[in-house]
Amino acid sequence: MSTYSKSSSVLVLVGLLTILSVGISLILTRTGVSAGVVVLLSIVSFVVVLMILNDFRVGVFVLVIYATFMFFLDRLLTLSFPQGVIYDALALITFLAVFLGKGKDWRGFRNPITTMFFIVTCYMLLQVLNPSGVPAAWLVSLRNHTSFLLYVVFFLMLSSVARVRAFTLFWCAIAFLVACYGIYQEKVGLPEFEYQWITSVEERYRLYFIWGKMRKFSFLSDPSSFGLYTAFAGLATLVLAFGPFSTALRLFFGLTSVLSFISMSYSGTRTAYAMAAIGLMFFFLVTIRNRNTLIAAILLGVVAVVILFGPFYGGTVNRIRSTFRPSEDASMEVRDIKRIRLQSYVLAHPIGGGLYTTGQNGLRYAAGHPLAEGWDPDSGYLLMALEMGWIGLILFQIFFFMVVRKGITNHFSIGDRSLQTYNLAYIVPYFALTIAHFTQDAVFTKPVNLLALATYALMHRLPSFEKKLESVDLV
Asked: Are residues 396 and 315 located together in one domain of the fold?
């Protein structure tokens, strides 16, 4: 490009920015701050969309950021429009952007995980023919079917070790911020706008204020999502801290792991506590021959004994202890009774009652349906069984099993230490997440659902890197 052309482009850009600045100033003066904020957000959104269309990988990073902070923005700005719609739009734009450029590496896309994921997605789409379902509810549920589209995006983006490293460092840095803000809420207190948000709904306050303490949620939607996310992040960064990386990077991973587990304890989410324990046992089991992990296992075992049986008490400690004493937990008994009561419905409906017909979603989108009542199914597996029948439940369990099995196979077949570390950093917390799905709708919760999708893509990608990798540059 000539000097004249560059100067012209700069002048055009400055001119446009000047016009926009004047326009925004006039809007702020005449209609108030809120309208100006809307205009600014519209401009930013337009720029972001252009960047995504230019490079679909930008969309992945934007999605991770937005899925993490969207609920915080909603509480801060008291926005009236559904944030989930923006998330779905970003997911769709990112997927479409994949086909605008060239040079995509589709090698290996046809693999058992892709096939099974495709089958599960088709089964969900075919639920439109379910005679027990409600068409309007099924139509709303289509928003959740962006998962397979995003899987395609992750598969194409994570096409090299450098990209895997960059993405992993990126979301770990965000996890660090999430953990720090959760600790801030615990030690300093909730900002006024967050406290008002909690107390604005009586039922929400009852769920958040338990055992004399307010459960923390950081930037995420609720304490449960926060607990699951920090458990995932704590496990992943713990694995990475043992990897063949620079000392500075290992210290960062180790610090992030510690902060994640500390902030997780403030969430008051017992499922997250169990998820962390299961993930740690799985990690130590598959790496038991490693001296460093064996020492870490012994130290963490001592810490666990002190927490569970030490002569000190408090809301957080008592809730952690109750996780590992389910026979004394009244809420677990209620959930067991609920599962037993609904077994007859599952057995009588092999393809389920239809998507979005259960509990609160049912009341909103499928009023009058037998499953549409004011209760929460709690368990993600129970929700699958109710809405997609025992056939859908089995399909999903096969899919989860295939992913975990592939991850375990990778661990013992991959020779490169860095690739082996990345493999464990994703499959260890994912395995724990599938167990947590028994008591929470865990696998599909934002933003941990994006990390699950990355796991699906990496389980097949990572072994292929070793074949063409002569040496891996350590960070």
From this structure: yes
Q: Is 184 in the same domain as 297?
A: yes
For residues 65 and 140, state if they share a domain. Answer: no
Q: Is 2 left (phi over 0), alpha (psi -120 to 50) or beta?
A: beta
For residues 271 and 367, state if they share a domain: yes
Local structure of residue 446 (DSSP, 8 states):
T
Measured N-to-C along each axis, helices 291-309 and 315-323 cross at an angle, to the nearest 10 degrees, of 110
Using only C-alpha atoms, the chain has a radius of gyration, in whole angstroms, of 24
Q: Residues 184, 283: one domain?
A: yes
Question: CA 441 to CA 436: how far, in whole Å?
Answer: 8
CB 338 within 8 A of CB 375: yes
Range of the domain at 84: 31-104
**Contacting residues for 94 by C-beta, under 8 A, at least 6 apart:** 52, 56, 59, 60, 62, 63, 150, 153
467 vs 18: CA distance, rounded Å: 53
Report DSSP letters for 247-304, one per residue: HHHHHHHHHHHHHHHHHHHHHT-HHHHHHHHHHHHHHHHHTTT-HHHHHHHHHHHHHH
Chain-centroid distance, C-alpha 382: 20
> For residue 26, is it within any domain?
no
pLDDT digit string, tens, across residues 5-48: 444 444 554 555 555 555 555 555 555 555 556 666 677 777 88
Which pLDDT tens digit goes with each residue over 264-290?
Answer: 999 988 889 989 999 999 998 888 877
